[in-house]
Amino acid sequence: MAAAASPASVRPHEVNWTVAGISGLLLITALAVVPLTLTVLHSRESDALVIDLAGRQRMLLERHMKEILLASQGVEADYRHTRAALTDRVQTLIQGGTTVADLDRDGTVTIPAAPTGEIRQKLLEQQQLLESLFVRADFFLLRTEAGAQIAATREALLKDHAALLNVANDAVILLARHSEDNVRTLIRWELAVVLLVMAVGTLGTWRFLRAERALKQSQALTLQALHQRDAVKSSLLSSVSHELRTPLTAIKTMLFSLQHDGTSLPDAIRREFLTGIDRELDYLNRLIGNLLDMSRLEAGTLQPRREWQVLDELVEGAIRRVGLLLADRPLHASLDRNLPPIFADGVQLQQVLVNLLDNAIKFSPPGSPIRLEASLVDGCLDVRVSNSGEGVPPGELDRIFDRFYRVQSGRSSGSPGTGLGLAICKGIVEAHGGTILAQSVPGAETTILFRIPLTASPPAGDRPTPEPTALQGAA
Q: How far apart are CA 423 and CA 294, in angstroms?
């Protein structure tokens, strides 16, 4: 009897040890996953900071060029301060260290050195071009003071500036690509650990028949979440890579024709190729700008830097930026005569106008008119951009402002874009305390409306006097 009772008394002990063993394994795995997760988050934050600093180089370059041109006209401009910031930041991006995060604000950040040889080489190239640009800028200012003919010098300076902007953009692209590669590697390690635990847990579930069903359901939910995340990631990577590859392929094709058949091509075709290259580069610039703006919106770093602005000037600047896209489109812009200056971030507000005009062009038939209207409504600036076309189904009007969302229709399915333009518009408008919405009549007209509250008027001595505006034209 005692011998018969012995196995029964051992079984609960074995089950308890099994539970303890699997629980210990799960605990060890959890402790291993936490550092990996923290590493992923830290890596993304660090990379986002470096990418943001590299992206700010472009804004500093634009600011430096603006200050040089102002100085050449006798206007006092502290371009040397901007120049010092450009030199310090590119040196920090190469070697690592501490640098000023924002030229107009206090506070510094510490970043690591360039992570790869390719990125370091691109930053060194940027550093060399900076030094060359500074020398040419000083020569340009000296010629200006001497009253010499400076048209050729100015053109060479602007050409060097454009080349430097391209190198700065290339550096941002390389940094973003490196960041994505690092995150993918860390995620693979994390998934490997999770899958290892799932495999070991599955081998032990035969000893826990009562918990088998619950465990299988848990595994199914985990796998579904992983598949959904992979699907979203794959969709994003596919969309961005496609949108980058298409203009790059077109540019490469046109450059090949110009290089190998340039002497035999008619002048009209050569001009058409050059115009096409310029158009595709503008599109790439807008795409990368949208991606950077979205990353800053998500990180909370795209904050409005408000100054007094005249809406007429912002509208004219936005129309110039989409000039090639308008082609033979009739653009009707109508601004109320009594529009006061607005206290807003001019760069961001102009980006909203550019994105809305770009969206209206892409989702309307060729040759159809585009309308831009601005008026005062209940103490707010009311801006509308309208286009004709298929329109937006009623059930999708709210979703078109979501990230990466694009209306699925006959025309929109073939239009380029990543679905970020309207999401960025929403972020910028809401950062200004405003609202944005879509109105559409399927098959007739679609209107995107944003409304920004107006602040108190500036002092009388500082208030610019806007001209009555009723722009009509085709760019």
A: 8
What is the separation of C-alpha 287 from the centre of its chain, rounded to a whole number of angstroms?
7
Do the beta carbons of residue 415 and residue 342 sit within 8 Å? no
Indicate if the pLDDT at residue 70 is higher than 50. Answer: yes
Residue-level pLDDT at 206: 58
Residue 58 contacts residue 88 (beta carbons within 8 Å): no
Tokens of 79: 């371009």
Are residues 212 and 20 in contact, defined by beta-carbon separation less than 8 angstroms?
no
Token pair recorded at residue 471: 């722009």
**Pairwise CA distance, residues 48 & 55, whole Å:** 10
3-class DSSP assignment, residue 76: coil
What's the predicted TM-score (pTM) here? Answer: 0.43
- Residue 42 CA to residue 341 CA, distance in Å, equals 42
The secondary structure element, H or E, covering residue 474 is strand 472-474
Q: Are 128 and 160 in contact (CB under 8 A)?
A: no
β pairing state of 330-335 and 370-377: parallel
Rounded Cα–Cα distance for residues 254 and 248 (Å): 10
- Helix, strand, or coil (residue 374): strand
Tens digit of pLDDT for each residue in 210-262? Answer: 666 676 777 787 887 677 656 655 655 555 665 666 677 778 888 888 887 76
Choose among 293, 319, 331: nearest CA to 418: 293
pLDDT in tens, 148-188: 667 888 888 888 888 888 888 888 888 888 888 877 787 77
- Extract the runs of DSSP E, i.e. beta strands, from 318-426: 330-335, 342-344, 370-377, 380-388
Closest CA to 345 of 435, 431, 465: 431
Distances (CA, A) of 45 to 40, 94, 99, 183, 404: 9, 19, 17, 11, 22
**Quick one: which H or E segment has residue 309?**
strand 307-309
List b or e across 212-250, with b for residues whose CB sees 16 or more CB atoms inside 10 angstroms.
eeeeeeeeeeeeeeeeeeeeeeeeeeebbeebbeebeeb
User: Around Cβ 65, how many Cβ atoms within 10 Å?
Assistant: 21
Beta bridge partners of 447: 386, 439
**Mean pLDDT taken over the chain:** 76
Query: Which segments within 312-467 are labelled E, that is strand?
Result: 330-335, 342-344, 370-377, 380-388, 435-441, 445-453
